[in-house]
Amino acid sequence: MAGRQLFMTFPVTETSHSLAEYRARGGYTALEKALRQMKPAEIVKEVTAAGLQGRGGAAFAVGRKWQVIQYDDGQPHYLIANADEGEPGTFKDRWILENSPHQLVESMIIASYALNVRNAFVYIRGEFDLPYHRLAGAVEEAYAAGYLGERILGTDFSLDLVVYRGAGAYVAGEASGLIASLEGKKSFPRNRPPRLTVKGLYQLPTVVNNVESLSNVAWIVAHGAAEYKKYGTPKSPGTRLYSVSGHINKPGVYEVELGYPWMKFLEEDCGGMRHARAIKCVVPGGVSSKVLTGADIKDLKLSHEDLWDAGSTLGSGGMIVIAEGTCMVTLLQVILRFYHHESCGQCTPCRHGTGWMHRIIDRIVAGHGQPDDIDRLYYISKFNDGTTICGLGDAAGYACTGILDKFRDEFEYYIEHKRSRLDGNLECLKSS
Amino acid sequence: MKRLIPEFEKLRSRFPAGFESSLVLPCLRRIQEDRGYVADTDIEELTEYLGVPRIQIEEVLSFYTQFRRKPIGRWHLQFCHNVSCSMNGAENILHYVETKLGVKPGQTTPDGRFTLSHAECLGSCGTAPMMMVNDSYHENLTKETVDALLEGLK
After folding, report:
1. How far are the Cα atoms of A138, B1, B68, B75 from residue B136, in angstroms, in the given order?
2. Does any domain span residue B29?
């Protein structure tokens, strides 16, 4: 176990997601406490004091986002849980949705009470079937138990919660794209300002938080901010759910206390590398975060500040571990194909840039690479950075330059010799 | 579409007033579940029912990968070929299935039984390689498990 845990405190069984078992674990006592003993402003204060950072990728302070909402401004407010989990390498929100959906539901009711929200939504990606059914089942259970609907627990507070299914678009995970999708349109992100907390869903103040970020709220309310800050590091309080995949012996979702030593986690918890191969590099938080080599991560701790200092980010917690012997040119081809496929086409630099990068990497892999193709990939990546409405175009560039910075020699070899130095391998096979 | 209206009315009651536009995605999903794809008549009837511009529905249908304007095979096999799946042999499994069924991604077998597709990351990286069969996930695929699975899909 990698440090102390707040989420994975129970054995997962066929019924552990049910209301009965969640209540047996102490569930919905935080809601009772919030509604009966706390004022809305106190909850916002507590979440702010806990220093909870967003778990979707940007690590923006949840409390600061909430503070923008004016409780008594006379307008409807909306709360949306972002369950459009689609960053390659990330599947940790799925763990919550499948195994502890009531933790999200309870936290959302508390957050809605704190932010004066009457209608809340969970936007879940369209492909998630079991997570959707588990969550929708939990919502129905909560309605039947009087935790949702009119006059919750006999108080004046009422809330309706809708689980809204997407239909297949990576860009809908971007908060403003998500809102467009929830308005029944194609998910084109939009420029800020105005911030979504000022003009969001149907032009009304809207808080969009990641599933895992929100799911911390019930714990913070139950135990208090001071207790929460005892977990993690001073700059990164709490724990994080990591989804670990790639060439690792025990892939899966792990809860890790922030500040836990990275190598220790990979070796002890994740069972080390497949076939005892050395670590070539790690994608730390979804493919949009810059890769770090085995040498880079040796002494790092899993905290936001350590990763920022190393020039990358914990991002979405989607960790992909890549073994020595893997061809980075072929890997980048997969990544650039993905961004090209998912670019929504709204902004010219991203629409053309991701396609251009994809065509360049395709021709390199086909053995038709030109000597200045590497510089051209850098040029497009840098041109895209900051010139588009959302971060998709930027992220394509970060992923690309992150790999080129560390493994330029492999690309030069491929272009010169018209073949991979590593036979184009992506798999970690025993014989290779 | 018209016979689904009672269901749509129920759905509408969960949303706040003025959220008609938000019903576009859930209604289209339900129509597709019912018919297998979204037909021209569905678009016309939904435009009328929700009072939204027709172009909005057309845009939604062409933008999201899950919507279809044409019928496909009874079993839709979608193979993830993103990073973690590729690192765990997704391409090999896909080639195996292509050979076995005699179709490429984007094609349907002549008997209308299977449609094969590529998909980008479906959030199943820890259990790679994986595919979706219609709505459900099948993970940690091997040639043997794929054989057994396809055998059961009539």
Report:
1. 20, 25, 18, 11
2. yes
What band does B1 get if pLDDT is binned at 50, 70 and 90?
A: confident
A318 interfacial to chain B (CB closer than 8 Å): yes
The SS3 call for residue A321 is strand
Nearest chain A CA: its distance from B61 CA (Å): 9
The phi and psi torsions of A282 (rounded to 5 degrees) equal: -130, 135
- Quote the CA–CA distance of A103 and A241 in Å, as a whole number: 14
Put simply, whether A315 touches B (Cβ < 8 Å) is no
> Could you say which of B63, B87, B102 is where a domain stops?
B63
Q: Are B119 and B78 in contact (CB under 8 A)?
A: yes
Query: Which CATH number, 1.10.287.1770, 3.40.1050.10, 1.20.58.110, 3.10.20.600, labels domain A239-323?
Result: 3.10.20.600
Decide if B139 is inside a domain.
Answer: yes
Q: Are A298 and A335 in contact (CB under 8 A)?
A: no
Q: What is the Rg, in whole angstroms, of the alpha carbon atoms belonging to chain B?
A: 18
CATH tag, A328-417: 1.20.1440.230
Decide if A186 touches B, using CB distance below 8 A: yes
Q: Which domain holds residue B88?
A: 75-151
Chain A: closest CA distance from residue B69 (Å): 14
Angle at A286 (CA atoms; ends A246, A332), nearest 5 degrees: 70
Q: Hey, are the CB atoms on B121 and A88 less than 8 Å from each other?
A: yes
DSSP states along A242-286: EEEEESBSS-EEEEEETTEEHHHIIIIIS--BGGGPPEEEEE-SS
pLDDT beneath 70: ranges in chain A: 431-432
Is B68 inside any structural domain? Answer: no
* Same domain assignment for residues B97 and B44: no
Residue A259 near residue A301, CB atoms below 8 Å: yes
ipTM of the complex: 0.97
Which of B17, B40, B63 finishes a domain? B63
Nearest CA in chain A to B14: A162
| Residue range B19-56, pLDDT digits in tens | 999 999 999 999 999 999 999 999 999 999 999 999 99
CA nearest to A112, candidates A10, A179, A209: A209
Chain B residue whose CA is closest to A335? B83
Q: What is the CATH number of domain A19-228?
A: 3.40.50.11540
Q: Are A323 and A247 in contact (CB under 8 A)?
A: yes
The reply to whether residue A183 touches residue B65, judged by beta carbons under 8 angstroms, is: no
Question: Does pTM top 0.80 for this prediction?
Answer: yes
Task: Tell me the CA distances in angstroms from A310 to A111, A293, A299, one per residue in order.
Answer: 34, 11, 11
Cβ-based contacts under 8 A for chains A and B: 146
Domain boundaries, chain A: 19-228, 239-323, 328-417
pLDDT of residue A431: 59
Answer yes or no: do A243 and B18 touch at CB < 8 A: no
Residue B58's contacts (CB-CB under 8 Å, 6 or more residues apart) are B43
Q: Residues A283, A344, A131, CA angle at the centre, nearest 5°?
A: 60
**Residues of A with Cβ-Cβ distance to B87 under 8 angstroms:** 245-247, 320, 322, 326, 331, 426-428
CB-nearest partner of A334 from B63, B86, B126: B86
Residue of A nearest to B30 (CA): A165
CA closest to B135 among chain A residues = A129
